[in-house]
Amino acid sequence: MENLLVVESIQKYYGNKENITKAINGISFNVNSGEFIGIMGASGSGKTTLLNCISTIDSVSSGHIYLENKDITKIKEEDIAKFRRENLGFIFQDFNLLDTLTVEENIALILTINKVQQKDIDNKVFELALKLGIEDSLNKYPYQISGGQRQRCAVARAIINNPKLILADEPTGALDSKSARQLLDILKEMNEKLKATILMVTHDPFCASYCNKILFLKDGKIFNKIEKGERTQKEFYNNILDILSLLGGDFRDVR
Q1: Amino acid 255: pLDDT
Q2: What domains sit in the chain, N to C, each tagged with a CATH number?
Q3: Main-chain phi, psi angles of 183, to 5 degrees
């Protein structure tokens, strides 16, 4: 597997000289194409800040981030939106769907912006909706469907453009246990069958057990990292719990 993402000695500071907060303190790691990586840590450990820097929502104070050898920390402000549309898919805890658009229009939005032909858009949206089991909801609005269906819509929107990297921030946080497990199964299937590369921030050890590698953050640094390897999901889950007991913090389990 080849390196898709390289994070190189990044630091992120907030505040001024009198009151500086170091949210990220010299983090480095690589993500290979086709990996499903979890990022765990207590509140304030830097995990969401890290995801925001990788997604270009936030900028680093120092260091470099490379996506397919392109230094994304050097992208000009006016080019960032185009870069995100062409390379990244986002799955948020609160879905971030547009209530004025139907499910179909929400999923198709990025293709519409990229001026893909309408016939191709219709085919792609329906095919993906069929895979995710939301084909009967395409003409409905987000407020007319369940939380689980809204999250599936958000997943469809994130992957409709075949992004190089999918970034998920607590994707199960607003879901009940059944919907959360369904979403995790979808993400796992995307990773295994479509070879989607996923970077997921989570507080939840059960959610993290779906990944094949996990980075644990503490005080803006990498505290530990583990790989699933040949272990079963249950064995990997227990390994995660062992590390979290050392890490401390507020963690929950969707089960």
Answers
A1: 54
A2: 3-247 (3.40.50.300)
A3: -65, -45
